[in-house]
Amino acid sequence: MENYVITVARGFGSGGKEIASKLAEELGIPCYENRILTLASQLSGLDEQLFTEVNEKMRGKKFSGLLKGLPRTIKPKPVDDEFVSDERLFEFQKQIIENLAKTESCVVVGKCADWVLRDYPNVVSVYIEASRAFCLERVMGKMGVNEETANASITKTDQYRAAYYEHYTGGNYWTNPVNYDLTLNSGRMGIDNSVEVIKDYLHIRFPEAAK
User: Fold this and answer.
1) How many Å apart are CA 164 and CA 171, to the nearest integer?
2) Which of 25, 73, 129, 157 has the fewest CB atoms nearer than 10 Å to its CB?
3) How many CB atoms lie within 10 A of CB 198?
4) What are phi and psi of 180, to 5 degrees?
5) In terms of Cα–Cα distance, which of 38, 124, 27 is closest to 73?
């Protein structure tokens, strides 16, 4: 196995993004989340002919090179809008994720990556969730908002993610444990221990990854 990919799906406020970022740092590999969406959005905004040309020409490490130049953050960012599908954007995003899986080891957060890469043998998929109390405390602390605002942000963002996942996976549901290798309760496990559990599982699945 030349490379491996860990996909991380997460409830808002569960610390999933922080876990993914720490995991990637400890493994010495990139962590991709909104940088994928940003690049796909930028490129899909081209007119149809240019979009087709870029879509055909961009392969392999050209993707990761562009992604690494985009900003990253682990601060919670709630979704305020209703989910509206964008098929062209998703298809390009899907291609980016597939090219990453073929060319480098990395962590991919969200974006239906577990579903996109479900038939890839080099992928470990993880779902991270926690109690509402745990998520509320994290969101209030990191966003500097009151409980009412935090609660609304969690509800809205998780509804958006569920609708997004259901639409682009053809009706599957986001929290289905069958979609994942591991499902972790970060409130009980803790952020750092969750990282260690994923690393342990990764090394069981792919012993060479431990080297």
Assistant:
1) 10
2) 73
3) 25
4) -125, 155
5) 38
Nearest Cα neighbor of 179 from 7, 2, 13, 3 is 7
Model pTM?
Answer: 0.80
Within the chain, which residues score under 70 in pLDDT? 1, 37-85, 209-211
Considering the domain 5-210, what is its CATH architecture?
A: 3-Layer(aba) Sandwich (3.40)
Q: Which two tokens stand for residue 119?
A: 């038939």
C-beta contacts of 147-152 below 8 A and 24+ residues apart = 150/13
pLDDT digits (tens, 9 = 90+) for 144-193: 999 999 999 999 999 989 998 999 999 899 999 999 999 999 999 999 99
Give the domain ranges of the chain: 5-210
Of the candidates 17, 76, 67, 59, which has an alpha carbon nearest to the alpha carbon of residue 42?
A: 67
What is the structure's pLDDT at 47? Answer: 39
pLDDT recorded at residue 75: 58
Residue 185: CB atoms within 10 A of its CB come to 14
The pLDDT of residue 88 = 78
Query: Which residues lie across from 128 on neighbouring strands?
Result: 10, 184
> What single DSSP character describes residue 107?
E
